[in-house]
Specification:
With 152 residues, this protein is an alpha+beta fold. Helices cover 32% and strands 33% of the residues. Strands 6-5-9-8-7 form a five-stranded antiparallel β-sheet. Helix 2 (27-44) packs antiparallel against helix 3 (46-53). The radius of gyration is 16 Å and the shape is globular.
Length: 152
């Protein structure tokens, strides 16, 4: 019975982890959340938007924390992180994935040259405690780089 239930949940794009169920997020969901965040910065200003992005119970943390907005500046300093407030104020410029890839540097470079983009890297999925590929969409707004990622 349990295997049939898990199979049925998998068919509907859901994850079951430690007794919790939620719909798996898509790259389109991540991009839409970044677009919504960019609109808030433009409409309300940087300070108000950053406060909202850092609100772990706010509109920019979704699907039980699977989707959240993070913001870095051009130097790699974290200005907002809806999932981990301990990162705010920390410089993540030299952060690498398990394969040694400097994915934050890549985001900064692409944002500076193209204004927006995607980057893929391996990261620990806290929900499953496994290393997985993650794809992050980001956009540059003034001196901010606003991003949101999903596990593949």
């Amino acid at each position: 019975m349990a295997r049939a239930t898990l199979a049925a949940l998998a068919l509907f794009g859901s994850l079951v982890v430690h007794g919790m169920t939620w719909a798996a997020s898509t790259p389109e969901d991540a991009k839409a959340l970044v677009k919504k965040a960019v609109a808030l910065v433009k409409a309300s200003g940087k300070d108000k938007a950053l406060a909202e992005f850092n609100n772990s119970k706010g509109a920019f943390v979704q699907n039980n924390g699977e989707l959240y907005i993070f913001v870095i500046d051009q130097a790699g300093k974290t200005l907002a992180n809806g999932a981990n407030s301990k990162l705010v104020g920390k410089n993540v410029h030299d952060l690498r994935d398990v394969d040694g890839r400097y994915f934050i540097r890549e985001m900064i470079d692409i944002a500076g040259s193209k204004g927006e983009g995607w980057t893929d890297y391996k990261w620990n999925n806290a929900a499953t405690n496994t290393m997985q590929m993650k794809s992050t969409y980001f956009e540059k707004v003034d001196d901010l780089i606003i991003g949101c990622g999903v596990y593949k």
